[in-house]
Amino acid sequence: MRLQYPSNIKVIQLPCSGRVDILHLLKAFEDGADGVYVAGCKEGDCHFLTGNFKARRKVNYVKQVLTALGIEPERIEMFNMSSAEGPRFAQVAREFTQKIQELGPSPVKTAKAA
Amino acid sequence: MIVGDSKPLEEILEMIEGKDRVLVLGCRGCVTVCNVGGEKEVGILATALRIARKMRGLPGHIEERTLERQCDPEYIEELADAAEGYDAIVSIACGVGPQFVAERFPAARVYPGINTTFIGGALEHGVWSERCQSCGNCLVHHFGGLCPIARCSKSLMNGPCGGSANKKCEISPEVDCVWHLIVEKMEAMGRLEELERVWPVKNWITSRDGGPRRRVREDLKQ
């Protein structure tokens, strides 16, 4: 299965999506990421039972922080997929990249250039 | 522990408007335990403030520091070499923190980054409940270990009132009627007759009604 997904996506591997921290997500935006998404296991399929639910709550928290800062909350999302769903991984990667391209560069980055 | 809530980011951004060098100051005491003002939250707030600065093309001199406690002078002293070099210090300790920092460093501009809400405990991870109003004269042993001062909306000593319905207080279906709980508990303990005691009006002088409180321990004082 040689699936293609956009090369601008930087994959950061974690043992479980529950390991994602609010700070990891915010630091990505601080460093100029245009968008961030967490790819966790399907709901109900977490090996640690609730890791992916916790990740979703953290993503929602960061959405609130971004909104308060005046950044589109759509720049961060949580997706659920099984590790056997390669095609879905590639599809989500393409769709999210497309959405972020429509939103344009992060306001953090554009201000830096100004 | 003392429980607090983060202030809205917009309010903090307004506080530090035009201030170049900013310190976000955490506390490893109560506010760390209630996840509002510890090292982790310092990192989150400072990062959010840096993002806000970057978005406006401003320099992001937002520094982070967390003290062991902000309610003891010896820890506040750790800021001696740096405090007055900041244009703003945002303390995310309880209300004591910003006051102790401002008192020790008179020239520093200190801002509270959280709202201190109550003395309470964690019911579960992420849920806290008020349990003490620091009235200065604890009587919980007469009420089955439940405090009618902090947990009854009217602080009734001889409850319940007519607003108790279906175990809940009339102010909100979310609030338990503590007097309902007291009666149930005392009944279960076989101590119901103890509730026949009529309590006279409480002397609130040991509480805030007696003015700001101060405690001196001669055996400890130097």
Low-confidence stretches of chain B: none
Helix content of chain B: 25-40%
Number of strands of chain A: 2
Helix content of chain A: 40-55%
What is the CATH topology of the largest domain in chain B?
A: Rossmann fold
Q: Number of domains in the coordinates of chain A?
A: 1
Largest interface: A-B, 16 and 15 residues
Average pLDDT value of chain A?
Answer: 94
Strand content of chain B: 15-25%
What's the CATH architecture name of the largest domain in chain B? 3-Layer(aba) Sandwich
Residue ranges of chain A: pLDDT <50 for 5 or more in a row? none
Helical/strand content category of chain B = alpha/beta
Our Rg estimate of chain A from Cα atoms comes to 14 Å
Give the neighbour order of strands across the main sheet of chain B: 3-2-4-5
Q: Could you give the distance between the termini of chain A?
A: 43 Å
CATH class annotation of the largest domain in chain B: Alpha Beta
Strand content of chain A: 5-15%
**Ends of chain B: how far apart?**
27 Å
- What is the domain tally of chain B? 2
In round numbers, the mean pLDDT of chain B is 96
- Round the Cα radius of gyration of chain B to an integer and report it: 22 Å
